[in-house]
Structures are given as C-alpha cells and as structure tokens.
Amino acid sequence: MNSFTYYSPTKYIFGLDSHNKLGEELKKLKNKNILIIYSSSSKKSGLIDTVEKILDENMISYVEYSGVKTNPTTDMAYECIDLARKNDVDFILAVGGGSAIDLAKSVAVGLCCNGDVWDFYLGKEIEKAVEIGVILTIASSGSESSPNAILTNNDTLEKMAIESDLIRPVFAIMNPELTMTLTSYQTACGITDIIAHCLERYFTNTENVDLTDRLLESIIKSVIKEGKKAVFCKDDVESRKNIMWAGSLAHNNIIGCDREQDWNSHHLEHVLSAKYNCNHGAGMAVIFPAWMRYVAKKHKAERFAQFANRVFDIEINNDKPIETAMMGIEKFEDFLEEIKMPLNFVQLGICDYDIDELVKLNNLNGGKTSGFYSLNEDDIREIYKIASENRL
After folding, report:
1. What is the pLDDT of residue 40?
2. Is beta strand 159-163 parallel, antiparallel or unpaired with respect to 148-152?
3. Can you tell me the mean pLDDT for 65-90?
C-alpha cells in the first residue's frame, strides 16, 4: 500500500427530492451571481424550471448556458467563460452529468486566468478556480465529486484531462429519481463508465492493497447486479440509488488513493470519442475488454484471474491463471452484451476507421505510457485491432 493524502471538500446531499435543498445550500455560500450550465434534456424534464424557481425565491441572481453537448469542447468553454465574465459570475451550478460538470470545471478554471483555459489541459498548474455545485442527473462519470475534468479541443481533436482538488464541487445534490428519465442506453453507458473507473484502479502493480481490492470488487458486483435492474426496469428507484452512489465512490478516489492506477484504456477511448463523438461509456465497453484481453497475456495474469474469481465466482486455475483470466473477461463481455453495450467498432457506429491514424492520435511519438502495463504504439495498435474485431 502506498502512502497518501486524501482530501475532499464535497458535501453529498443524497436522496429523493434532495434537489429542493438547493436554495438552502446556496444561501450558505453567499455567492452573488451564479452561472447555471445544463443541456436541453434538463430543460425538457422541467428540472431547470424548478432550479430557476428556487433561485428566484431566494433572490439569487443567475445567468444560464444551455448549450452543453456530449464531449464538451473548447468552443463551449470559451463561450461560457465569456458569458460568465460579462455577468461577474462567482459560482457555477452544473445541472446534468459528466459533460455539464466537466464544462463547469473548465469554466471555473478559465475564469481565474488571463490566458487560454486549454493551457491547463496541456499541463499548466491550476492555482485558483471558482467554486462549483452540482445537481446530478446521470450516474456515470463521478465528476460530481472528483478532482478531474475532460475537454476536447475543437481544432486538434485532442481530448485531455485536468486534475486538481480545487475543481472538486463544494456540494453534490444526488436525487436518484432524476435519472429515471434516461433511456436504457444512457443508463447502460453510465454503468459501464462506473465499472471502468473501478477497473482502472483495480489493475495495479501496488502490493498489499487487499482492503481496497475488495471494496472495488464489491462496487463492481453491486453495479452489475443493480445495473441489470436499472436498464430493464427504469422505474426501479432502489437500483438507481445504488448505482448513483457507486458512481461517486468509483471516482472520488477514496478507493484508489493507496495505489498506482492505470488510465491507458481511458486515453485510448478518448481518441475515439474525440474523433467520432461517440458516448464515452459505450466507447469504454469496446476498449476496456480489448485492453484486458491484450494485457492479460502480457502482464500479471494472476491479477485478472483474481478479478474473475472474486467478481464472477470462477474457480482459479493456479497452473494456468491466464485461462481463468480469459473466462472472467468473457463473463464481463457477456454482461456488457446483456445490457446492450457495443463490443466492437461496428457496434459502436464506427465503420470507417484507420487504426494507424488512431494510434498517432494518442501522441506517444515513439514513447510509452505508464501504469499497470506500459503501452507503446505497437501495443496500442493491437488493442485497437482487438476492439475493431471483438465478437464479430
């Protein structure tokens, strides 16, 4: 187990009708001008009308940006930052899922600098950010309490991340009922993303992390069990409670701070969603099993066998752990297939692709990644090949 310092300022307000506590939370913060960031779906559901009513009743000034789309871009961020500056915004409220929240985080950082917010995605240190609050409507990204945000550059099609405790939301209002308007596909995409966040922490070279191993395994098992209910019975609010809480636990890093992590599969998927604008969770359903199939044969098959045993109750073959590992991967793919997730490029909607181009877009330039298993360009090429052909 590694040494660590863990910090989270996020206050969780969880439960049915919890969004009605918005005014109470905002009054405590004493902000003067709020920017509300949301997508058209939050408006159609009537949630934004409720938010506006609460703000009006509490005499809180606000402006709105309703142009959020999947995979937020630099153009959206620049537009939001300009709007916020013109209106002296001192607090940002994201209403939605990962896209709305990540855009809010980009704006929070951009408002506090004179230069280009994209510079922070290229490595510039974040020193200050406007505070953020969240009303969560999609259990998926965990961005409601994470120190991370993702943004796509319109010009270069690079999809990059920032990380800082300064962009952790100060509160996250989590009402599972707000996820009941989602389609089965959206719910399944969120479930896949939650599991991926767990697995990217699970596959580690750090030893003696049995406690957090078992926490990760428990979250994955619960999400698989409750996920099936939520996908096929959208009115099952109890399953949605479990999934929503799992989404935060999977990515607020409380179960990953003691270990080395591996985010290579996320980076490989970011290339796909930046270029083809596919749903991130669906992209992870294609990439992660491909990564597992490739890496299990290269490095620590025992780790994959442990996953198979503890998550899917497959007996470990100690003489040939790779056999157990592959059986576990098959079971994972079976689950993804059951909840109607894609397992290859064609099912993801990508029919015209150039694997060499995808490799180049990872910008390794002859180098290697870090993590559980370091990937070079040849490794990435093989993973994309598996992803393009899996279960065809």
Report:
1. 86
2. antiparallel
3. 96
